Amino acid sequence: MKNADIFPEGKEPSPKPATNKSVFVKELSARDRHRILKHFLALKKSDRLLRFGTYLSDELIAKYVDGIDFSRDTVFGVVSSHFRLVGVGHLAFAPRPADEDISDKDKIAEFGVSVSDNARGKGIGAKLFERGAIHCRNVDVDTLFMHCLASNQTMIHIAKKAGMEILREYGEADAYLKILPADAVSVLKEAVQEQVASIDYNIKANTRAAVKWLGSLPGIKDDS
Ligand SMILES: CC(C)(COP(=O)(O)OP(=O)(O)OC[C@H]1O[C@@H](n2cnc3c(N)ncnc32)[C@H](O)[C@@H]1OP(=O)(O)O)[C@@H](O)C(=O)NCCC(=O)NCCS
Asked: Which domain holds residue 174?
């Protein structure tokens, strides 16, 4: 499947360098909450400002992570070879009013993303965004929204490459992406991505557990 199947005609992102082929984006669950918290807490002050639009203290970040509703929202992650969560994309769906006339199309999904300092520039942010967009497509949401500071050149670059319409006002930027309707290919693409990412995740998790166990043996040190 090509990017043209997700993004509007003529607005497909240009091909990424080979590095992003090994970026596997997996859907996270409530079991990952602690790791998500660790990822956010490791973000420096300026990145917290870019990610949340305001500087969040450790306590407020803990509250935010505690409040993620995994039954409503979708959270994606990318893990490093050492099984550290280096990228998190949060797709938040606004709660729908209990009105039967309102269809899923009236839902706007909002996307927020962060990548650990030492993992940037490898296509992780763009991959998380691409996965968020295809997920929206497959759950019949037609508008993906992103809010960021107008000074956030990296995020605006990613958004523009994805064909998002950017509206700037008072130092802030709102980006909108119209998503194409789902088809069999988009559903299959996401399913395959998830399966491959799950295998990658489990291998890394098991390796990490084995290294930890070995490190607990007398005379062996865990350096990872
Ligand atoms: C924004 C962020 C998620 C990007 O993650 P990343 O993994 O480094 O992003 P990618 O590697 O996928 O892509 C970066 C792109 O931005 C470009 N870029 C980097 N710095 C840039 C700059 N100062 N101006 C313009 N473009 C820039 C890169 O060249 C690359 O583009 P390319 O793919 O066309 O070469 C990451 O920097 C981050 O976590 N920032 C703090 C939180 C944040 O800003 N979140 C967004 C608001 S919700």
From this structure: 3-8+17-94+104-212
